[in-house]
Amino acid sequence: MSKATETLLEIDLNALGHNYRYLTSKIKPDTKVLAVVKAFGYGSDATVVAQELVKLGADYFAVAYAIEGASLREGGITAPILVLHPLPTNFDLIVEKCLEPSIYSKKMLQDFIAFAEKNNQREYPIHLKFNTGLNRLGFRNSDINFITEALSKTKSVVVKSAFSHLAASEDPSEEQFTKTQLDSFRSISKELSEKLGYRPLLHNLNTSGIINYPEAQFDMVRTGIGLYGFGNNSEEDKKLKAVATLKTVISQIHDIHKGESVGYNRAFNAVQTTKTATLPIGHADGISRAYGNGKGWVSIAGQKAPIVGNVCMDMIMVDISSIECNEGDEAIVFGNNPTAEALSSAINSIPYELLTAISQRVKRVVRRK
């Protein structure tokens, strides 16, 4: 593995393949896989990740917004792409790029049908999102008659899939709630299919659902965070591999004498002689200002170097008093040690937030380790 000479995010495609194969080992061979690559592929590189996932066998992709789907198309991705949160202002882009919108409300359904009819579309694929307990987006089961009546009056759209989203599939204490959600979705799916006169693809499981509720995989499963190496469970994390490793280098080393301070607002004050290293990465790169002052660390020469003082926009300072190292040496912000799970936990956060916060100014480097 090459050493970093600047701040960069390494994307390990072999790790991605390992995670994909592990997750798909949990499902039946004929169950389709929808890979979630929103938020720049959870902070990595959505196009690179999607291109690799096509080779691995992914059937579908999902993004949050239309612009993300358009970017995938420009990157050569021809597989179906579900847009989870389309907005009417982007309907033209959705159709132009052959993206498939999630329709989650009466107004959204009426608006998209009107748009499709105006633009002479026929059987344009849409996906119906149902709310079974997350209470974020989605139709209620009481909306089925409205949906099917609206669809019976037009040939402009066709329902490609119906789906819902689990609220707590990673939490064993919420097993009963999750099972209630799954039962609700089964009931909705049955009624919807009967009233449509055809059966769309059905999908409900996310990464934790694949792991904990494989009996409810329906026709397709969705996986996001699992692809990138996290199973929302310490035991599952051991079976997955981190795709992203954030690296940087030591710019300068300082000897801080007793009574001297480090960084803005003199947040760190040395009670004894302390050696610090300044690293070229800060909150503009995604390292939250919640770190520092005893929260969070990086790894230098395999040893823990705590972040001291306040995180700056472009720099952090770490305590290397007990580490033999030199200017120009590599520092691992997260990867295998520390993991994004461990680092995010230091500020009561989650890997999702840390990974997706990595700024686009951080150089991405693709490797097969």
Structure, described:
This protein has helices spanning 13-24, 38-43, 46-56, 66-74, 91-96, 106-118, 144-152, 175-196, 207-212, 234-237, 340-345, 351-356, and strands spanning 8-12, 32-36, 60-63, 81-83, 100-103, 124-129, 157-163, 201-203, 220-223, 244-249, 252-256, 261-262, 268-269, 274-279, 297-300, 303-308, 316-319, 330-334, 363-367. The protein is an alpha/beta fold and 369 residues long. The longest helix has 22 residues, at 175-196. The model has no long low-confidence stretch (mean pLDDT 97).
Describe the protein's topology.
Elements: E1 8-12, H1 13-24, E2 32-36, H2 38-43, H3 46-56, E3 60-63, H4 66-74, E4 81-83, H5 91-96, E5 100-103, H6 106-118, E6 124-129, H7 144-152, E7 157-163, H8 175-196, E8 201-203, H9 207-212, E9 220-223, H10 234-237, E10 244-249, E11 252-256, E12 261-262, E13 268-269, E14 274-279, E15 297-300, E16 303-308, E17 316-319, E18 330-334, H11 340-345, H12 351-356, E19 363-367
Rounded mean pLDDT score: 97
Oligomer: single chain
- Rg, rounded, reads 24 Å
Helix content range of the residues, please? Answer: 25-40%
* CATH architectural name of the largest domain: Alpha-Beta Barrel
CATH fold-level topology of the largest domain: TIM Barrel
State the CATH class of the largest domain. Answer: Alpha Beta
How many β-strands, per DSSP? 19
Provide a concise account of the structure shown.
By secondary structure, the chain is an alpha/beta fold.
